[in-house]
Amino acid sequence: MSVTSRWIDIPAGGADSFGAYLALPKAGKGPAVIIIQEIFGVNSHIRSVADQYAQDGYVAIAPDVFWRTQPRVELGYAGADRDKAIEILQKTNVDLAVADIGATAAALRAMPEVTGKVAAVGYCFGGRLAYLAAAQGSLDAAVAYYGGGIQNQLDLADKIKVPMQFHYGELDAHITVADVGEVKARFAGRDNAELFLYPNADHGFNCSDRASYHQHSSALAHGRTLTFLGERL
């Protein structure tokens, strides 16, 4: 196994700290990518995504953004687990979660293993957090996969000065093609923004543990993300 991984603690201000899953590449160092969870916690899928980016040569870290409500929660994608995930999301202070992404970025910049810039790649709720953290100025680049709610916070677009990439599924009933059109129009003409719409993909198309997984779109999006990060970091 060329990737080594462990859980570490990230200072959150005062005496508080929260856990984060850290995956290091074979070289032991490199630019950094924050992998931001869906509403299902830092579960086995999110950890595998962090491992994947570590395989790609990045110092990858997945912070536990639900730590204030239920630390280290791991949930599935249907039934009672999905209900629990929605319940935790409703109890989550988004501003504090964005601050946690900033704290994670600051911790990465202080690590000797991090030799380059710090980006974030977020999925669903995590995609929105990546967008919001970019607007806060705590990242060097951000990627949002089917980030729910971004279309409702486009007033923040002018605050995003770093490169930003968006991925959406055309079949997504949660984020409609019209919603995607609003995001596309708001970022049109900016050389630091890219948006891709996948015609046969639904919400969650990147997650191989979900019924909506779409291999072709997932592979294409991952390649585009790696190209984006490779050029920008």
Overview of this structure, please?
- The longest helix is centred in the C-terminal third of the chain and has 18 residues, at 215-232.
- By secondary structure, this protein is α/β, with parallel strands linked by helices.
- The protein has helices at 44-55, 79-90, 94-109, 125-136, 177-186, 215-232, and strands at residues 4-11, 17-24, 30-36, 59-63, 114-123, 141-145, 164-169, 193-198.
- Helix content is 34%, strand content 24%.
Brief description of this entry?
The chain is about 35% helix and about 25% strand. With about 230 residues, the chain is of the alpha/beta class.
Mean pLDDT: 96
**Bulk shape:** globular
Strand content: 15-25%
CATH superfamily: Alpha/Beta hydrolase fold, catalytic domain
Number of domains: 1
Q: Rounded to an integer, what's the Rg over CA atoms?
A: 16 Å
Report the span from N to C terminus.
25 Å
Poorly predicted runs are none
Query: Which structural class best describes the helix and strand composition?
Result: alpha/beta
Tell me the major beta sheet: 8 strands, mixed
Please tally the helical runs, counting DSSP H or I stretches of 4 or more residues: 6
Helix content: 25-40%
CATH class: Alpha Beta
- For the record, the CATH architecture stands as 3-Layer(aba) Sandwich
- How many strands appear in the DSSP assignment? 8
Assign the CATH topology. Answer: Rossmann fold
Strand order of the largest sheet: 1-2-4-3-5-6-7-8
Order of helices and strands: EEEHEHHEHEEHEH
